[in-house]
Amino acid sequence: MAVETIERPAASTLRKPAPRYRVILHNDDFNSMEHVVESLLKVVPSLTMPQAVDIMMQAHAAGKAVVIVCALEHAEFYCEGLQNFGLTCSIEPEE
């Protein structure tokens, strides 16, 4: 009894990177600039003070600013954290 060997083509191991999402801070007329900067620093620990100030100023001048680009689960976490500090934010897919 002969054993037959079946060869299979090597499986492709290419992985697609996980989709990334932008956390968007929207300007509002309720929160002080200091509160916005402090909230950004507390919720997104990777931000530096100058980065937080730049984000706040961009939102103030343009109406919105990108806080961070990351995986969906992290984006939801950051967005919820900012909302808990009374800030207005949203999430959108990175294009």
Quickly describe the structure.
The protein is α+β, with helices and mostly antiparallel strands and 95 residues long. It is built from 3 helices and 3 strands; from the N terminus they run βααβαβ. It has a 3-stranded antiparallel sheet.
What characteristics describe this protein?
Ribosomal Protein L30, Chain: A, 95 residues, alpha+beta, 3 helices
How does this model look, in words?
Helix 1 (33-43) packs across helix 2. It is built from 3 helices and 3 strands. The N and C termini lie far apart (59 Å). 40% of the residues lie in helices and 22% in strands. The chain has a 3-stranded antiparallel beta sheet with strand order 2-1-3. The longest helix has 14 residues, at 49-62. The mean pLDDT is 92.
State the shape.
rod-shaped
Number of domains: 1
Compute the separation of the termini in Å.
59 Å
According to CATH, the homologous superfamily is: Ribosomal protein L7/L12, C-terminal domain/Adaptor protein ClpS
What is the strand arrangement across the widest sheet? 2-1-3
* Helix/strand class: alpha+beta
The unreliable regions are none
Instruction: Provide the CATH top-level class.
Output: Alpha Beta
Instruction: Give the CATH architecture.
Output: 2-Layer Sandwich
Counted beta strands? 3
Overall pLDDT metric: 92
Radius of gyration: 21 Å
Largest sheet: 3 strands, antiparallel
Count of discrete alpha- or pi-helical segments spanning 4 or more residues = 3
Measured as a percent range, the helix fraction is 40-55%
CATH topology label: Ribosomal Protein L30, Chain: A
How much of the polypeptide forms β-strand, as a percent range? 15-25%
The ordered H/E elements are EHHEHE
